[in-house]
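User
Take a look at the entry that follows and flag anything odd:
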Amino acid sequence: MLRIIIVSLLFSFNAILVAQDYVTIEDLDRRSVKRFEEAESFVRRQQMENALVELNAILEKYSNAIDVLLLRAQIQYDQNELSLSEADFEAALVLDESYKPRAIYQLGLVEFRQEKYEEAIVHYERYLELASDRDRRRGRVEKYLSKARIAAELVKNPVPFDPMSIGPAVNTNGKEYLPSFSADGRFLVYTVNYDGQEDFYYSILDEEGNWSQGQPLKGVNTVENEGAQNVSADGRILFFTGCHWPDSYGSCDLYYARKINGKWGNLRHAAIPINSPHWDTQPSLSANGDFLYFTSNRPGGFGGSDIYRCKRQPNGSWGNPENLGSSINTSGNEQSPYLHADGQTLYFASDGHPGLGDYDIFLSRLTADGQWEEPNNIGYPINTSAGEGTLVVSLDGQTAYYTTDQNTEKGKPLNLDIYQFELHKAARPNPVTYVEGIVRDAESKALLGDVEVVIRRDGTTEDFARLRTREDGSFLVVLPIGQNYGMEADQEGYLFYSDRFELSEVSTKETPFQLNVDLQRIPVVADAVATREPIVLRNVLFATGSAELLPVSEPELDRLYELLERYPELKIKVNGHTDNVGDEESNLLLSENRANAVRLYLIEKGIAESRIRYEGFGESKPVATNDTPEGRRENRRTEFELE
């Protein structure tokens, strides 16, 4: 603060009396003028060291040569010798601040890059005080001033930040960067650059919490450079960037690879409409696979590079890219998008939103009406005056990962490493968890691959996630906690399966939420029907105390209709059941009416009446105790069985 007061006083004195104890180019001897001209020529040819030799020689003779001080200050700024640049700008301004007033805000730029934000504010304000309203630099300096004030406020209110290396199994003396994780946190893919070639490596987290030694990702790495990748939540799809590949449309395009039968390969160009003749890179796939976010500098955006997203269509193709709009994108550059598994929290880097320097990391949340909130800077010292890039966040939102070169010693080759830190609460996403499931044949217990699984939020008819099981019958899906979900599984030759479940706690990679799905084969002979268990229609719901079907029941009833359409030889009986609340006679009538409501729905869709019977059992066949809310909910059910 004392330094700021002294600087302010110096400016005040200079405003009253301009010191004349300095020399300009015109005052130098002929040899020094020649040196200055040579220095300017070296600068134009980007030979900065030669230019500094000439300027230093002049200043040895004329220490108060103001033009020489200003040129040397600019060169040192460009060379990132910020303390030296600051000293030269200050020396020139003490000689005469009115000689070249732009040096005032240039000094502010030097101070800003050194995180001396309060001092930068003084110089920006001083420049604006002296500048006329028609000054062509006024608008630019006003933006500098706004950024400095915001940066100063961020520094005054630091956030918790204690980064730690992810470990020697991943980090080496080379460059490791751009981490990407599967939802369970066990599979890590990252980019390496050890000899000028960018390739993908992977590492597996063991039960003790240690990462395995990084290994090349065979089947994806090529003789070309690959980078800026993002692995899907289930660890089976990898979107990445390839630049100047033979089939690319422009400088950089998006590609993807799949993991099939335990091996990576099947590289594909993401094609139109995702890719364009322009720079398309840095993909981020939403956890449910519905949206692909990426960076592009295609025409029609707000600035140099903007963030876009494409929505997956029902047939599996991608829709046209959608710019995320002016709340996210600015006249500057936005890049490195990372959509957290909650589907609502977007982290990205920007040099257009006010921050601490070059690129800062920001976050924005998607509102219920589909709009992006005004982005927030995630805070100092996560963000600094240097450029920050991609940030990824664990499923539980507590741990963040990023790349830094903080271990690189000055003068030595860049050494990028992957670090992790506990993310402060204000920057955390919404809590989510993941569900693992296994789909089997109900009789043989054989694992069933390529089974369609659909997840819906309770009370909605839209698919939240639609996926297919792996070769080993397993599937993984990421879901927000604190909600109820409906699930259906369907496979040719089997009766479909439905279930409802509640996610009230965050599951971890040690204890994921498990779903075991047993599909019953459609019998080929009538005698086999008697051995079949009834199929509970868990997502067929009614208004309280009524036989009125709720709209949320339609997707599951439509699936039952499709089953009957697919197998016209099948006949079914719909059964209705209630809990023991109320009298037996009323419950029996209610169960009959509910079973009939399902029957009538199917008949209206076109199923012949002769193929559907119904029966109500009231409270006579409980499957759980009626002493708890959960038990009563289990007993209130509608089911069907083959006849």
Remarks:
- The first helix runs from residue 2 to 16.
- The chain has four domains: 2-156, 222-427, 431-521, 526-643.
